[in-house]
Amino acid sequence: MKKFFRYCLVFITPFIGLLLLMDVISSSVICNNATLNAKAERSIWVLGHSHPQCAFHDSILPDMANFATSGESYYYTYFKTRMLLHTANQPSVVFIEFANNQITPRMNDWIWSDEHLSKQYSELQPFISYSDQLLLGTNNPKGFINAFALANRRKWERISRRSFDYDDQVGGYLPLRKSNIDSLLHASADSAELKWLDRAPDTTQVSESNVIYLQRLIDLLCSRNCKVYLVRSPLHKRYSGYENESTYQAIRMKHFSDVEFLDFSDVPLTDEEFSDFEHLNYRGAQRFSLWLRTLMEKGLLEQSDKRAFIDSYRSELP
Length: 318
Known about the structure:
By secondary structure, the chain is an alpha/beta fold. The chain has one domain (34-104, 150-316): Rossmann fold (3-Layer(aba) Sandwich), CATH 3.40.50.1110. The chain is built from 13 helices and seven strands. It has helices at residues 2-33, 50-53, 74-87, 106-112, 114-124, 130-139, 141-161, 181-186, 192-197, 208-223, 245-255, 282-297, 306-312, and strands at residues 44-47, 64-66, 93-97, 227-232, 260-263, 274-276, 279-280. The strands form two sheets. The protein has a five-stranded parallel beta sheet with strand order 2-1-3-4-5. Strand 1, helix 2 and strand 2 form a beta-alpha-beta unit. It is globular.
């Protein structure tokens, strides 16, 4: 039996070594050749998940580039940002979405579930260090192995086609055309639709992994002399994420008290300007972005009391 295992090691070890060598080579080629469009040259970047993706209309905000992506945890935002900084001019200002649901345990699934491994890890894998990939392999070994194989196939396909454009992988403003608020407000409290769209997070538990990668993201940007702001996009007053507000504020003050916070969650938009309780539709995004452009032009980021400045312009929504 010992001889059998010895023979297996003799054959398996070189095979694993060859796979890792091919992975290192393909990742190096991708990292050295990855390109982005001109939007990455703008001076203000927006990062985060679907809330800012649907709120910050960067065609209305000319100095801003929206790189937010639906369903993206801070783990993937961190490595996407490393890729952006490697392939584009660094921004002077970065807005990072910090919403109530981004501290909940559900964010762990957004990091290492099969869905997110196959969708996000497999595309960003060339930019993720092996030590950070260990987190994924430890928490979902089978899913990680499948996604690692998928990532390598995609890398070699890119190399063979000389397709190094990553524009499709860095997010962007997403206009939502419908408003479901009326049906949600009239839905019964136990309807499947309401539970799916208005998920109530655990009010006390926290995704430590997501918080850690937010800290790393902020440190990365500060090391590049970027001014970082945590922001909270407009939310409907019925947004169930508010149920963990005390935990949310405690995490913000414990870990991010030195990062300025721009809270737009209570901007007075109408029901017709929301797609659901946590996303603006295109009407809301247009109105919010026009209002934000006015605030930026009037010197929002230079104000010592930004909360008071924002409040003073609440009545001037276009």
